[in-house]
Amino acid sequence: MADAAHPRDSTGDYDVAVVGASLAGCASAVLLAQAGARVALVEKSPDAKSFKRICTHYIQSSAVPTLRRLRLLEPMEKAGAVRSRARIWTRWGWIAPSGSTVARGVNMRRERLDPMIRELAAQTPGVELMLGRAVGELLWEGERVRGVRARDASGDTHELRARLVVGADGRDSRVAKLAGVSTKTVPDGRIAYGGYFEGPLPVTYPDQALWVLDPNMAAAFPTDSGLVFYAAMPTKDHLPDFKRDPEGALRSFVSAIPEAPPIQRSRLVGEVTGKVDMTNVIHAPTAPGLALAGDAASALDPFWGVGCGFALQSAEWLADSLAPALAGREPLARGLRRYRRTHALRLAGHERSILDYASARKLKGPERFLFSTAARDERTARVVEAFGSRNIGPARMIATAMPLAALATARRGWSAGRVTPASGRPMESVR
Fold it and tell me: φ and ψ at 259, to 5 degrees?
């Protein structure tokens, strides 16, 4: 695969050392190995079945092609994953286009998904999975990262030299800290509590339902094994109630929302988990010899369910950007620049819109106009859905949806006092 101009580096132990064997790390390892790289996949947990415990676990429609490329979508469906679209409740009615043109997203608990993708990585030729090794240092060659130093449970250290280090170790990425990449943090004005419940399914099933309560939020995510993940994301003044009685507060909050799902008739499976500090953390995604993927690059407000999808997609962008350099066809620096540009092009707009609303502010005038129209107009709703499922960016959404909303507003024959609830039956608009 190498050429004379850019021969493959033969001095390192690996082409790539990936730190973190969760969604972004495993997907990066698989796709890089499929491109011909020799990959060390380093994970601090010794348990191959470990999983992320606080996560909405929804994989957006935009990441479904990545799941297909990984050959993971069909095994997930066979294991009980639920294919769904998102319905958004607003005080003007539900945004739920009947003629949707986007692919359905995927709901599957991390308890099942994480071991599944880790096993896929371990079985991929070219990937060496190393469990129970915590990375404590980076190896340097001048100002360029050249590998990692990891410690196992017995205290022994292991030096893994590589042409490229990929940090896929989550929101609090130690790799990003060790590399000293630039960091931006933005406070989040909400808290998040949620739990899995077994019982009657919401009327929106199999679709997920999001309640934009302005400024509070709630969600219901149907998932595998007949369970539903109910989540409450209110402003921080609700924290005392949730700290005092997490389950009681979650049940009370969700049961009080308009067209509430049947949480009170459901049984909690496991425990209610919560996150009080949801500070958004954005790192520069590259440095010499280093790339970051998933939450290590961009950890955003969880309400919009972008974390899992962006983890998988950023791994794909990384692999496609760096494969030519790792094959010796171009300098590594060129591949890193390509990844950084792609990451910014695909995610910067989404990041800005999510960070703006994470302040727990009320909806702005243009947002109220767009949501109120989308609740009544099919074409506007389709554009909002395409944006909400991350198939288009905010610039294209605004450029397309606003003219459609203006046209819809000007049309005659609207019954402004009628909207469509989740059940599909007409109701008076909610004020």
Answer: 50, 50
